[in-house]
Amino acid sequence: MEEGKMDGAPAPKRAKIGSENNPKPIDNSTGNTMSGFKRDRHGNEKRFNNGPRPAPKPKVAVVRNAYTPMFEQLRDELDAHHDRRDRLGKVSRDITGLSKKIIFALQRVRTINPDLPPQIQAEVDSRLAEISKLLATMAPDVQGINRYRYSRSLMCLEELAEALTFAHYLKTQTLLKPDELSAFVEELTRKGAVSEDGAKDKDEPMPDAGNTPAPASGEQETTDNDNKLAEKEEQRQPKLEPLTMSTTEDDYFYGVFDLSGEMMRFATTSTALTGKMAGAEDERTIVEDMHELGSFFEMLPMKAGDRKQWEKKLDVMRQSVRKVERLGYDRMIRGSERPQGWVPDLTADQPGDDEE
């Protein structure tokens, strides 16, 4: 019996591969190409339910009724909401990173002085200039009720409040007030909007004087008159103030909560490197400032609706106050015994280790 034949049955016909000019497979029975069909392992066109291939279903037109515009509007609002939240999240991460860099630069300061070191002041100013541009891009999306709707996407303002209050403390040894912080952020946003408008004006293409033909005398007079009329029209129209954004009470309180940790680090490094507590030795030191700051938050009523975060930050602030207290005690009692550059082991002061 020959190969490919069983019980006298003829071998199934297989498709031949076409030539170079016709690379598609060819059906031996019809001579037609085999593209456009689903075929079995023998190259024959597949049948569906032992019948011909079913015709494609016609596309059903979208049915519109009285409710269709309402759902389309809801769809557009949801799309705008998600796009806005994504934009705010990206800008918020950038502002948070720049605020942390400001704090890192301020931690290189060793004494409380109205004038920061020139290098540190220049770095802080450059970071604030970048933050102002980012705030200007964020301002249109957080007007009105959106300021509170996207509050979780604006966590960067807490970090910015921490950086600004820390810089204010290093200059004046006082706490920045809520209205002063809000005014400062509004001014940053306004400066960023102005700088963006100036950059757009500079980017506008100027006509090439070499390729522009000189206008005739009559055309020149007409152009000058048009320019004067345009200037008068611009002067008549009132200039729109750039949109701004400000901080809320939550931004301020949580920023000051985090400020206690930065003050603790500043007190530790400055005491180790200078041999004395930061602040006015004869009048007021950072230990007293930490006591007052801790007492301020202990007296405040706990915010409703955010109890967990409030308690967590309050507990961290208590730890910072205890560490600065211990640092002051060690310096006053054993200060003469400590070599310069000595740093206390503050890790032993953990919550729950109260002395009996």
From TrEMBL:
One of its GO terms (cellular component) is nucleus. Its main location: cytoplasm. It is found in: Cytoplasm; Nucleus. This is Translin family-domain-containing protein. It comes from the Eukaryota. Belongs to the translin family. Residues 1-58, 192-244, 336-356 are annotated as: Disordered. Residues 19-35 have a biased composition (Polar residues). Keywords: Cytoplasm, Nucleus. Pfam families: Translin. It comes from Neurospora hispaniola. Residues 192-205, 225-239 have a biased composition (Basic and acidic residues). SUPFAM superfamilies: Translin. InterPro entries: Translin_C, Translin_fam, Translin_N, Translin_sf. The keyword Nucleus applies. One of its GO terms (molecular function) is sequence-specific DNA binding.
